[in-house]
Specification:
225 residues; mainly alpha; Arc Repressor Mutant, subunit A; 2 domains; 72% helix; globular
Amino acid sequence: MARNGKLATDLVQKLERDIVTGVLKPGDKLDERSLSERFGVSRTPVREALQTLAGSGLVATMPRRGTIVASITVADLIEMFEVMAELEAMCARLAARRMARVDVEKLLALGGECDKLQEHADADAYYEANVNFHEVIYAGCRNSFLERQTKNVRNRLAPYRRLQLHRPGRVKKSNAEHAGILEAISTGDAERAAKLMHQHVAVQGEALNDLLAIVPRGYLEPLAS
């Protein structure tokens, strides 16, 4: 039983990562048999993992479709981005006050990696580096509860945040925004770090309209439960 629990936990992490990185997209079917074959485990930990992911809203069980990567309504999308901006701003504020120098150096290195990737305008490669950049800030806030909650909302929004970077010019704009956040955190300017991070994550007005225009069918309702 304990082994199945450990396997289920590992599967949750792997499937979350697949959703965050776009390997699995909203509307994709998650078949127990296929997943058990892919990961070389029995169906029991797969079933447990899917139940955990359903509890966090990342997957949903649909009539006649089975379990799929969850979609959300437009209203949910707007509300989640609003919450995400506040959570990330809080992480940045605390990170500017608490982040160790070694972690600041790591953040600077990731900023450099994002610099290189944005030159190639490869939105998907940049997105993965962007995830790492933000996760260092989450960890740097030194508040494990806040870090977990921020990651939970980030995971739920991952497919949509990834799509944002496919808007013309967004990768370069995102990278320029990183530079300001980096400076504020590295100099300990907590309020500026929070303000810049909020602006970086928030999606409203034209940015929201542009995002909705490029969201594929299936990412939004009526697929979501």
